[in-house]
Structures are given as C-alpha cells and as structure tokens.
Design a protein that fits this description.
The structure holds two protein chains of two kinds.
Chain A (H helix, E strand, L loop, with lengths): L1 H16 L7 E6 L7 H11 L2 E6 L2 H11 L7 E4 L2 H9 L9 H6 L11 E13 L24 E2 L6 H28 L9 H10 L4 E5 H8 L4 H8 L2 E3 L10 E8 L6 H11 L2 H10 L3 E2 L8 H6 L10 H5 L1 H11 L3
Parallel strand pairs in A: 1-2, 1-3, 5-6
Antiparallel strand pairs in A: 3-8, 4-6, 4-7, 4-8, 4-9
Chain B lengths: L2 H12 L5 H22 L6 H9 L2 H32 E2 L3 H7 L8 H12 L4 H10 L14 H26 L2 H9 L4 H12 L1 H17 L2 H6 L4 H11 L3 H25 L18 E2 L2 H32 L7 H33 L4 H10 L7 H27 L11 H12 L1 H12 L3 H9 L4 H30 L2 H6 L7 H10 L3 H28 L6
Helix pairs in contact in B: 2-14, 2-16, 2-17, 2-18, 4-8, 4-11, 4-13, 4-15, 6-8, 6-15, 8-11, 8-15, 9-10, 11-14, 11-20, 13-14, 15-25, 16-19, 16-20, 16-22, 18-19, 20-22, 22-25, 24-25
The chains are: A alpha/beta, B mainly alpha.
Chain lengths: 339, 558
C-alpha cells in the first residue's frame, strides 16, 4: 500500500509540475480558436523546424495574463481577432516595435500600428444581412440610417458585450461624435426585434426565418454558412442577402485579426519569422479560402464567395481609433440600453 | 448558563492554541484564501465614477436577474432533487433500480452544453419549430413558442443540470437515516407523507442545504449560459466591467460583493441551526425494507423520477448524439485520445488533492474550538460562488509575483533564470480548481464528521484505539460513501470546468471542455457534439460509482 501511495505521490508531483520542452520555439497566446489558426502554424513548423506552442483563449484574459507575468512571460506573440484589443495591449506596454521590411511592405499602413507594435493579418467587415423577400435593397444605405423608425422591431444584432459591436460603435463615435452616436444607438435599440442573444450566425438564421428583417453580422459568418455543405445552414444563408453599408459615404466598417510581438519575448527573431510567414501569399490565401476573410495584402485575389461578393468601399479610419474609443462605446451602449 | 460555564466557553473560544495541527490548518487555509483575499482587497480602492455609471444604467438589471435566477433555480432544483430522492430511498417501483443512478446523469452535462443543445433544437431556427412551420404553413410571427434563450430558459437549463447535487446529497442523507427513527414516527401515527415532511426532511436539512448552496453558488458563478442566453446577470456585469471598460478593479469589487452576499447567506443559514443536532441518536440500525408501489402510485413515482432524467439528459444527449453522428468521421485520432487522457488525469489528480485537503481541514477543525480556524475554513469554502475567470486571475497574481521574485533572486546570486517556475505549469491550474471546488469536499466531510457521535470516539479511546486507528477503523467505514461522493463530485466538476482552464492551462494543453467550447462558440454545434459527449461519458462512470457506493453505505445494507 505504501508503495502505491509513494508512486502516486511522485506521479502527481511530476504531472502538475512538468515543464515545457525548450527547443527552438515560439509561444503564442491566441484569441483565435485553435481550429482557425493551428493548420497554418503546423505548416510553418514543417517549413522552418521551429516548434510553435499555442494556448487559445480570450484576448482580454491574455492581456491580463501578460500584464501579471511581466518580464517572465513565456509568450512571444499575442494574436487577437479585433483591433481594439491590440491597441489596448499596446497602451499597456505589452508589445514591442518590430522593424520588418516584409511586414511593412505587405501590410498597408492603416492596417498596422503607427509604431509598428501590431499588424493586421486578415480583414473582415461588419455588414448588413437582409431578407430579400421583405426588404428592398434600395431602402438600405448606411449604419446611421438603421435608426430610422421604418425599421421598428425589424433588426437583429448580438449583445453589446461582443467586441465586434463595440468596435462598430467606436467607429460611429469617430465619424459622428459621442452625442450623435448615442442618439443613434438609442433609436437603434428601439428597432431591435428581440433582446440581443446568440452569435452572428444566429442573427442570420433569425433573418432567414422571419424573426427580423435585417441583421448586423461579420461577413465571414455568412460565407461560412453558404459554404458549410450542411443542408440547413446553406438553406438559411440562401434566404438572406449581403448589403455593403455606407458605400457612398464612409464605407463599410472593417476590423482585423492581428498580432504583436510581446515586449519581453525571448524568441523575438523566430517570432518575426512567424509573422512574416503569416503574410506570405500561401498563408494569406489560406485565410481567405478557409476562414473567408480578406487578405491584408491588396494584391491577393479573392476566390469563391468573397469573389462573388465583389469589391467594396471600406471605412478607412485608422484602426487604432477603435481601441481609443472602446470604453466610450461600451458606456454609451449601456446608456442606450443595448444589452 | 452559570458564570463559570460561560467563562469557560468564552476562553476556549478565544484561546487560540498554537498546536502544530492548528498552525498547519491556518497556513493551509490562508494559502487557499489568497485569491479570495486579493479579490476582497479590491474593496479598499475607491472607484466612484464607474460605480455611478453602473448604478445609473445596468446594475439594477444585473441584480434583479441574478436574484430571479437564484430563486428560480433554487426552487426547481429542490423539486427535481428532493422528491425523487425520497421516492427512490423509500419505495420500489418499475425501473427504480435504474433510475436510482440514471437520475444523476445530468450532472455530467455542463450547463453551457445543455444550453447549446436546447437552443440548437428548440430555438426559432431549430428543427422543432421548423417542423411546426412546415406542417402548418405558419410564419414565425403566427404562433407562440417558449423562448429558450430567456431568463426562464436560463433557470431551466441550470436547474436541469444542477438538481443532481441536491438529489445526491439528500438521498445519501435519507439512506443514512436510521430506519428506527422512521419506524418510531410510524408508531406515533405518522403516515408516509408525514414521515417525509416531519421526520426525514428536517433530519436531512443539513444535506439539502449543502446541496442547495452548491447549486446556488454555481448559479451565481455561471457565465457561459447567461451570456449565451443574453441574460444580464451579475457575472455579465463583472466581465463587462473588466473587459469592456477595461476596469479589473471594479470587476474584482463586484466579485467581492458577490462573496459578501454568499457569506451572509451562509452565516444566516448556519446560525439558524446552531442549536440543532443531526447525528444519529440511535445506534440500532436495521435494513430498510423498501415498500413496493403498485398501480397508479407506481406509475406516478416512475414519472416523477423520470422527468428530471428526461429533461436534463435524454433530450439534450439525444440531440448531441444526432449531431455527433453527422460529424463523426476523423475525430478519433491520436489528438483526441490525448485530450481525453489530459482531461481525466487532471480531474482525478484534482479530486484526490481536494479530498486530502478537505479531510485535513475537517479533522483539525473538528478538534478545535478556535474562532480563527472556523472562520478560515468557512472562508475557503466560498470559492464555489466566484466565477472561474476571476479566481484564475486571483491565483495568477500571487504566483506570478512569487515566480518573478524567485527568478530575480536566482539571477542575482546564481545567474540562473527560473522563468515562470510555477505559473507556467499545471500546478497553478490545479490550485485554481482547488480554490474553486474545495467547497464541495469541505462541506461533505464536515457533514459526515458531524454525524459521527462524539461518544463513539470516546468509547474507542477507552478501548485503547489510537487516533489513527479511530479514523481508520471507525470513521472511514462510516464516511466511506460521503468521501467517495466528494471525490467524484470534484472529478465531474473539473471535467466540466471551462473559464479557469481557458486562462491557466499550459501551452499545447487542452481539455475536452475547452475543445467543446471553442467549437460551440464558433457555432459549429455538430463538431462540438463529440467532445461534449465525451465529457458526458467520462462523467457517467463516476456518477454510477457514486450511486452504488451510496446504496451500499446504507446502515444495515446486506
């Protein structure tokens, strides 16, 4: 009996204190889900022999973790799915400046930080999805007009806790100022068909079955449903149409998934190598083929659904502003009663 | 009370004896209290602006919804838990032998998973309503259907998966009750309903309350379900303040308020029963003959016990199963087995450690009269009410601090860098689990010890048994069922745990819950179904084991 207990004891200690192997490696904190990034990392490892270690989770908790870990952090890279979080990480001094000719050349200026602390890797737009049965495309214009009383009880959108909505509202604040945006948000809330709930795909389905007539969603969700190969998903998606908002004004709101090298990275060189890999044509094409996101490299051609949707005018504010106005946006949505 | 007696009890309470055990208890509890102390410490930093904003806008909503959830979930899980527990302990009816353990199955179902699967099935876009529309030709606005994603829905989801805590502990208590007490009640003219209401139920009160407080704490800490359902509860507020407003201070303050609320509730409950004793008064145990029900009685008993199983397990699991079949191919590779093994190991190691710690705390506390001891143990056992994410940060802060000091020290004197020695390993995750889940074994061990009459120890002592032998030969056989229950409850809870795991796990280390969440969060329910079912299956085996051990622990079991 004593032997068993001893063995168990040693085993437990070993199990909970086991350390990471430290070969040539890059360590990533990723807010992007494993399934949506791992395949690229595997390819990178095969090419370079550099091992990539990954933890996935929420950007906010990673930012907190980086703050707490300070100079001892094992992470070399923070990957997020929203510009506002990159800005926040930069403001907290968690990133460092990276001077890479490859990155600077490939990524347009407005999609990266002024001091090159972070870089966009892929683009997505928050668009209007509508039911062609119940809505005339001519009635749609931009985000601002969604507060019009003619949409009373006809709009679906997810919770204001969601970062994509926060960034959209932040972009409204940039264009219209806080006061006007707040008036807009209050009317928008009155136009909701139901209390915000679920994810973006939920909103698309809601439009398809008639809970509401229009919804605000990220465009890759619609593309993903159309291409899912699952009968019901496809049929829901087919019942809706995509509308690019604000084409004759500020353009459609865009956001990025992006990346920064941590300030206390111990593998800076390899981290930059990985970043540079992520903007190669091969990786960028993967983003658009598998995740239905737009490449940050304007030279990459879109395929499939994205190609069919065609080119669109995108809102070209500096994405750092989304981070700057994030808290304002949240407070404003609280006041407007956007749950 | 005479003055002498009073002064004696006063001194014994104040007199904090610094024996080795006491010291160890204080240190150990303080160790586990660190995260909670950090959370409460936030209250000393004023943040008036944010609080004003919260008061003006959303706080009332948060509080109202959380209260409604507490009341709803408490009520429904009591009904779903206590009544079947009584029927199954006292009667035989069709399938009762299987229902006895099957009714526990929902326990292995994480709340957010049942939420996803009910939504997938019964939401406006789900197959059920789709069929209604197809058959009738109605549009969405032409009929009424209960909204799954609502406050009521959240109550239902949480009750469906949490009632087993109450069922489990209550049934254990019913089975442990001396049959003689019930027989006496019958000779005094109680019918079976009276025996239940006036004898068994009051005797089972500590167990029911432990179960209920676990249910309520879990409800308060839930984030996955309320967030998915768009119900703004207190946890929503914590995370919104933290992430949305980038204010972790006020988020911690909100958590501290939550802790205070739980503390007051637990204190009031304890005070209301300090004058009561619940251990067995009779030492006569005789086998309980379960009464056999026939006809409509049997049928109703069956239905009452079947409903919780249907709602909490059969319906959601069958939808999961359906989705799993459609996404079956290519899942069972090496990665999946590693995932499964990781999860099981983590759950097992944590459960074992939790039980050992709880036993130590329970015993030391039992033999001491110190206020400080009692207070510390109570404090440690409140972690269950705090959302995993908040605990994770509370754990990360002290360990990262320690690692960093150690690293500085080693660099200075030996020129070695230790990096994140502790906070980069599984240890920190296991520690966070313990902070969160110790509540369960502490309460169960305490309840079990409370039922051992002090006289028993004394008799054993006069018969020359050493302390160790008293524990080994007298306490352990009596408590076996309870201890196993505690072990397996923690095991199942770790299987399901998500938020702390998400933050604290080391690189390249995933669990089934993480995998399920990631897929479900991407609204890929079909792919999420397989890891979800794996959690459920991994939880089923211990659940059946718990149930068997309880039946066997019945006094007079043959």
């Amino acid at each position: 009996m004593n032997k068993i207990i001893k063995t168990a004891y040693i085993f437990i200690v070993f199990f909970i204190f086991q350390q990471l192997p430290s070969a040539a490696e890059v360590n990533i904190y990723s807010a992007r889900k494993e399934a949506l990034i791992k395949p690229l990392l595997v390819k990178f490892s095969e090419k370079t022999g550099i091992e990539v270690n990954l933890i996935t989770g929420k950007a906010d908790t990673f930012i907190k973790r980086l703050e707490i870990e300070g100079k001892n952090t094992p992470a070399d890279i923070l990957l997020t799915v929203d510009a506002a979080r990159l800005v926040r990480a930069k403001e907290k001094g968690l990133f460092q400046e990276i001077n890479s000719e490859v990155l600077n050349k490939t990524i347009p200026e407005r999609l990266r930080d002024i001091n090159n602390h972070w870089f966009g890797l892929s683009l997505r737009s928050r668009v209007i999805v509508f039911s062609p049965e119940r809505v005339e495309a001519e009635d749609l214009t931009d985000y601002m007009s969604l507060s019009d009383t003619k949409w009373r009880g006809r709009i679906c959108v997810r919770s204001s806790s969601n970062i994509y909505n926060q960034s959209l509202v932040a972009s409204m604040i940039v264009h219209y100022g806080i006061d006007e945006t707040e008036i807009w948000a209050k009317s928008l809330v009155k136009n909701f068909a139901r209390q915000p709930k679920g994810g973006d795909r939920d909103q698309i389905k809601a439009v398809a079955i008639g809970v509401c007539d229009i919804a605000l969603v990220n465009n890759y969700y619609l593309a993903g449903m159309l291409d899912s190969g699952q009968e019901d998903e496809v049929s829901f998606a087919m019942k809706t149409k995509l509308f690019w908002p604000g084409q004759d004004k500020y353009g459609a709101h865009i956001n990025i998934s992006g990346v920064g090298v941590t300030r206390h990275s111990k593998n800076k060189k390899r981290a930059i190598q990985l970043l540079e890999y992520l903007v190669t044509n091969e990786a960028q094409e993967w983003y658009s083929n598998v995740n239905y996101e737009y490449s940050v490299n304007p030279k990459i051609k879109n395929t499939g659904v994205l190609e069919r949707w065609g080119a669109f005018v995108s809102d070209n504010i500096n994405l750092s502003l989304l981070g700057k106005h994030n808290s304002d946006a949240v407070l404003l949505m609280d006041r407007a009663g956007w749950k | 009370m005479t003055f002498k007696k009073f002064s004696e009890s006063f001194y014994s309470k104040l007199n904090f004896k610094l024996s080795n055990f006491n010291l160890a208890l204080v240190l150990l509890s303080l160790f586990f209290c660190i995260p909670l102390i950090i959370i409460c410490g936030s209250l000393f930093f004023p943040a008036k602006d944010v609080w004003t904003h919260l008061f003006d806008t959303v706080l009332v909503d948060y509080i109202f919804n959380s209260f409604a959830l507490l009341i709803g979930v408490g009520f429904f899980s009591l009904i779903l838990g206590v009544i079947p527990a009584w029927l199954i302990s006292m009667y035989k009816f069709p399938m009762s032998r299987y229902l006895e353990w099957a009714i526990l199955l929902p326990m292995s179902m994480p709340a957010y998973i049942i939420a996803y699967s009910y939504t997938g099935a019964f939401d406006a876009a789900g197959p059920v309503q789709e069929t209604i529309r197809e058959l009738t030709g109605w549009g969405y606005h032409d009929y009424w259907f209960p909204e799954v994603r609502s406050l009521g829905g959240a109550m239902a989801m949480l009750s469906f998966v949490l009632y087993p805590y109450i069922y489990l502990l209550t049934r254990a208590s019913f089975t442990e009750q001396s049959v003689c007490v019930l027989e006496v009640s019958r000779t005094l003219g109680c019918n079976s309903v009276d025996a239940f209401r006036r004898v068994a139920l009051p005797l089972a009160r500590p167990a029911i309350i432990v179960g209920l407080s676990l249910v309520l704490m879990e409800t308060l800490a839930d984030y996955g379900t309320v967030q998915y359902f768009g119900v703004s509860a207190f946890t929503t507020g914590i995370f919104r303040t933290w992430f949305g407003m980038d204010n972790s201070l006020v988020a911690a303050q909100l958590s501290a308020v939550l802790l205070l609320f739980v503390a007051v509730f637990l204190y009031l409950e304890r005070r209301s029963r300090t004058q009561l004793a619940f251990h067995h008064t009779s030492s006569r145990y005789s086998p309980l003959l379960k009464q056999k029900l026939i006809g409509t009685h049997a049928f109703f008993a069956f239905v009452v016990c079947f409903i919780p199983l249907l709602l909490g397990f059969i319906i959601p699991a069958s939808f999961l199963f359906d989705w799993a079949i459609s996404a079956y191919s290519g899942v069972f590779n090496k990665d999946f087995y590693i995932l499964l093994l990781n999860t099981l190991m983590l759950a097992f190691v944590t459960a074992l450690l939790a039980l050992v710690v709880a036993l130590f705390l329970g015993y030391t506390n039992r033999n001491s009269y110190s206020f400080i001891n009692k207070f510390l143990v109570r404090f440690v056992s409140m972690g269950y009410a705090i959302p995993g994410t908040v605990i994770a940060v509370g754990v990360l802060i002290p360990f990262a601090w320690f690692d960093s000091r150690l690293d500085d020290f080693l660099k200075l004197h030996f020129n070695i860098s230790s990096g994140l020695l502790i906070s980069g390993t599984l240890f920190i995750l296991v520690f966070a689990y313990l902070v969160r889940f110790l509540t369960i074994p502490i309460n169960i061990v305490e309840a079990a010890l409370g039922k051992i009459k002090p006289e028993m120890d004394e008799i054993a002592k006069t018969n020359g048994l050493s302390h160790i032998n008293i524990v080994k030969r007298i306490h352990m056989p009596i408590m076996r069922g309870s201890l196993l229950t505690a072990l397996l409850l923690v095991f199942v809870d770790v299987l399901k745990e998500l938020p702390a795991t998400l933050i604290l796990r080391p690189f390249n280390f995933n669990t089934l819950a993480v995998r399920t969440f990631e897929l479900a969060n991407e609204e890929r329910l079909a792919d999420a179904a397989i890891p979800a079912l794996a959690i459920v299956l991994a939880g089923i085996i211990p659940v059946i084991m718990i149930s068997n051990s309880i039946s066997r622990s019945r006094p007079g079991y043959e």
